Amino acid sequence: MKTKYIFVTGGVLSSLGKGLAAASLGALLQTRGLSVTIQKLDPYINVDPGTMNPFQHGEVFVTDDGAETDLDLGHYERYLNVPMSRKNNTTSGAIYNNVIAKERRGDYLGGTVQVIPHITDEIKAKILSLSEGDQAPDVAIIEIGGTVGDIEGLPFLEAIRQLRTELGRDNCLNIHLTLVPYLRAAGEHKTKPTQHSVKELLSIGIQPDIILCRCEQSIPAEMRRKIALFCNVDQDAVFCSVDVGNIYEVPLRFYEEGFDQKVAIMLRLPARNANLESWKQLVYDCAHPQGKVTIAIVGKYVDLKEAYKSLHEALIHAGIANRVAVELRYVNSENVDAGNARDTFEGCDGILVPGGFGYRGVEGKIEAIRHARENNVPFFGICLGMQCAVIEFARHVAGLEDANSEEFNPLSDHKVIYLMTEWFDFRTKHLEKRDTGSDKGGTMRLGAYPCKILPNTHAAAAYGKEMVEERHRHRYEFNNAFRDILADKGMIFSGLAPDDSLVEIVELPDHPWFVGCQFHPEFKSRPMHAHPLFRDFINAAKQRTAGRQHIAEG
């Protein structure tokens, strides 16, 4: 069976949840025994999200092959448990970049380069690349970013219109996600936004096969019939995507609606029963925790929770694994200092310092780490969080008072974190070069790299094996010139590159749980398979909670 394509578009407004809808549908098709992949097409002109401010676009998700991608790829991986790659995300900027490069090389033989056919052909090639090779998926879901009516999205919509004609109706399906608002004053749902959104699609030449209605509460059958009539779809092809308290309920809600069944019928997919036991168990475990822990996330992007989306989910996964609810307390690191740290973290069972770039808020992160170290609060530092832990230890334990990162103070005499002067030669000799195509992105260490684990450490207890692979996104590294100095004061380097050249994990042995890692473990956490480091971090927080309760009761 050749690959079937499902195109997901959105209407009325953004943030309706196309990524979650696409991932949930993919998960349901997986439970029917089908292999599934998902691709995100983003209309913005950036080549990739790697240089975009998290306040504008949320987190940058990183794949094993070093692609900096849209955060929706995190949803895809978490729901499908299938690794994504640079093939799974492209942008208008990348498309135009490729076409212009071809024009400069003379690939078009002097012809006039136009949006149609050259840009649309490049988009179609990106989509069809998903079915290349021996492991072509049964189903490829293509999510078109933005909203129907956005001028920058028109080439993508034209490309999928053409593919529908070229591949045939039995091999392509158009799903349109739109808003059906409920007006409380009138006491009814309103379908006009959906009608106008579908009209916009029709003007481009795309007739949706299925309408997925985003709504606060389920739409009555009469209203669904009205939508079907005015939008020219089957009456049984109008479905609801209702607000839920837990995003992992969405696949089950879609199944109850018969969403995957309709998709399977329309694409003539094999008739197999869905096995939803693992999803039901997941939702049950989420709803029935046996305790609670409070984790402080100390960062500078806390005003936009999407900036830490994978981190948030990884903590939830770890809570499920430990049968506890994880309450997140977001703390702006710019507001933390030595005078208020104790009050700020009162009642917290763990402190996590995530990654980031730039000096703003760094001293607050260092004070938060000092509080965790001196008060035996479980601590987890990720990327910049690990680097701040090294700086804090160097200053307050090793006595290197001006210890800092070269990123923040290049004049420091003790640059315990630095940009290796031989970085580019080193990367070429020791690490597989992965260039994202952007000047800034190309200077970072990106993607999955191996890490060997030192026995009898927190890292070894978590992973249970000697070698792991984790994903990186950073420019600065631990300065090996200070390895012996910090080791003499008690710091353990429990994770190293296979040739011992790079420090990947640090920890303190005389602490309940104090671990920092240079990589981003949150990218590999899954709802049914919590990442080992997050799992053990939450377990340490759980033990601290139990200890405090025992003291209170005593």
From TrEMBL:
Spell out the residue ranges making up region: Amidoligase domain: 1-269
List cellular component terms (GO): cytoophidium; cytosol
Task: Fetch the InterPro entries from UniProt.
Answer: Class_I_gatase-like (IPR029062), CTP_synthase (IPR004468), CTP_synthase_N (IPR017456), GATASE (IPR017926), GATase1_CTP_Synthase (IPR033828), P-loop_NTPase (IPR027417)
Pathway the protein takes part in: Pyrimidine metabolism; CTP biosynthesis via de novo pathway; CTP from UDP: step 2/2
Write down the superkingdom of origin. Bacteria
Coiled coil stretches, renumbered: none
Q: Which GO terms describe its molecular function?
A: ATP binding; CTP synthase activity; identical protein binding; metal ion binding
| Binding-site positions, L-glutamine | G356, L384, G385, M386, Q387, E407, R475
Query: Residues that bind Mg(2+), according to the entry?
Result: D72, E143
Binding of CTP occurs at S14, D150, I151, E152, K190, T191, K192, P193, T194, Q195, K226
Residues annotated to bind UTP: S14, K190, T191, K192, P193, T194, Q195, K226
**Gene Ontology BP, a term:** 'de novo' CTP biosynthetic process
Please state every residue range assigned to the domain named Glutamine amidotransferase: 305-539
User: Where is ATP annotated to bind?
Assistant: S15, L16, G17, K18, G19, L20, D72, V244
Arranged from A to Z, the UniProt key words for this protein are: ATP-binding, Glutamine amidotransferase, Ligase, Magnesium, Metal-binding, Nucleotide-binding, Pyrimidine biosynthesis
CTP synthase N-terminal domain sequence ranges: 4-268
Q: What is its EC number?
A: 6.3.4.2
Q: How is its activity regulated?
A: Allosterically activated by GTP, when glutamine is the substrate; GTP has no effect on the reaction when ammonia is the substrate. The allosteric effector GTP functions by stabilizing the protein conformation that binds the tetrahedral intermediate(s) formed during glutamine hydrolysis. Inhibited by the product CTP, via allosteric rather than competitive inhibition.
The catalysed reaction is:
UTP + L-glutamine + ATP + H2O = CTP + L-glutamate + ADP + phosphate + 2 H(+); UTP + NH4(+) + ATP = CTP + ADP + phosphate + 2 H(+); L-glutamine + H2O = L-glutamate + NH4(+)
Comment field (misc): CTPSs have evolved a hybrid strategy for distinguishing between UTP and CTP. The overlapping regions of the product feedback inhibitory and substrate sites recognize a common feature in both compounds, the triphosphate moiety. To differentiate isosteric substrate and product pyrimidine rings, an additional pocket far from the expected kinase/ligase catalytic site, specifically recognizes the cytosine and ribose portions of the product inhibitor.
* Homology family: Belongs to the CTP synthase family.
- NCBIfam families in the record: PRK05380.1, PyrG
Question: Any idea what job this protein has?
Answer: Catalyzes the ATP-dependent amination of UTP to CTP with either L-glutamine or ammonia as the source of nitrogen. Regulates intracellular CTP levels through interactions with the four ribonucleotide triphosphates.
Give the protein's recorded name: CTP synthase
Organism in which the protein naturally occurs: Candidatus Desulfovibrio intestinavium
